[in-house]
Amino acid sequence: MKDLDLIGKEFGRLKVIERSPSKNGRSQWLCQCSCGNVIVVPASYLTTDDTQSCGCLKKEQEQINLREKYDSKRVDDVAVQLFKGQEPRSDSTTGYRGVLRYYTRVSKEERFKAWITVAGKKYYKAGFLTAEDAYMIGRKDLEEKYIPKKPSLD
Ligand SMILES: [Zn+2]
Questions:
Q1: How far is the CA of 7 from the centre of ligand 1 (A)?
Q2: Residue boundaries of the structural domains of the chain
Q3: Distance from the CA of 4 to the center of ligand 1, in angstroms?
């Protein structure tokens, strides 16, 4: 069987430079890849388009795949974080930490009270019309009154 002369022929990124000693009766060719690598490729691999580069093509494709995978994972992470931000705080049904809803005993009107725990003791400040007031005024008040002042780190 006569070998094809492949010298000078291009297969993908590979350009055949010269004949290489055959292996197991199969002819092989020394090829220069466009990336600069030189490899020996069996002729059958070249003529069936199985081999189109020294391997750099596959590596590049893998890297692209990895990057795409990473990007789509990042989108998932952001989505998860956004979802997390919308979860109600587990310690509160009012949307504010340390604020409880209650109803006045006689007229059954909705009110809010702030509370804090300092050294195992609970302190309340009640009578707010909105949870926001309870938090912004009541809780701040309680914090100022009952939480021991730390030295300022500013
Ligand atoms: Zn290459």
A1: 18
A2: 10-53, 99-146
A3: 23
